[in-house]
Give the backbone structure.
Amino acid sequence: MSVKSVEGANYSRVAEFVLLGLTDSPELQAFFFVVFPIFYVMTILGNILILVTVISTQQLHSPMYFLLSNLSFIDMCLSSFATPKMIMDFFTHHKTISFEGCISQIFFLHLFTGTEIVLLISMSFDRYIAICKPLRYYNIMSQHVCLCLVVVSWTVGFLHTMSQLTFTLYLPFCGPNVVDSFFCDLPLVIQLACIDIYVLGLFMISTSGMIALVSFLLLLTSYIIVLVTLKKHSSNGSSKALSTCTAHFIVVFIFFGPCIFIYVWPFTNFLADKVLFVFYTIFTPFLNPLIYTLRNQEVKAAMKKMSNQYISSQKTEQFPRYRVQ
């Protein structure tokens, strides 16, 4: 351990944290070692497929799909900040992470989740404009506005994570260093500080927990308005819009549900916490591509077209046509 001084007082700060992981059972660890890499690879490939499809298909160059492609990029980041280490740790008896590595995981977790929250709000705003103000849609959701929404999302995410770390970096971690999870998160780590964390806990609830709860309620309200508007129409276009909004709301629910549960009660260790950690860091990024592709005919058609073009090009390379001289 290294010794540092704060306000003239010396204290010893832990150099690493011990991660307890998901389970102590060797059988379950072996099972997870097989299952989680499959989910992780499928998550990365699924989100890359959405990115490539949106970028390469002219018909998908619209505000909704621009925001969707950014969501796919964030999901890849969210699934990668802790999952690879968790997989490598399954057969490590002494699971540890350096103090700097722990702080980095907290930084990236809150950066990506904060960014995704604002991006999901932007996507709901996009659907609100498309359905409630269709004639002004492309004027309001211009390329410049879409780019600004993405920049604002990352800016808010960065400011949010820095606000969390500003206090954490200066806490005295002088003794306990066991984190009951497979990665470092703020509610778990600050409990190990050698001071009373009640005030800091209230700050966390007012930022992470309440921001997630208020954002979810705003999104729920916006989708209710959209659904009421759709109910007044009976055309095929409204049916398509309803399908899109349903997919968006499913994503919102499975993302915000675990976040609200974990951060509104940050210092209460529930048995389900580890399951929720797995859900929103691994399963949610995995489910998003499935939800958007299975419920979206345009994306499925674009992917099918890309697949047919790829197969055709491979056949051409394998069986070239020779000109008759």
Notes: The chain has eleven helices and five strands. Confidence is low (pLDDT under 50) at residues 1-10.
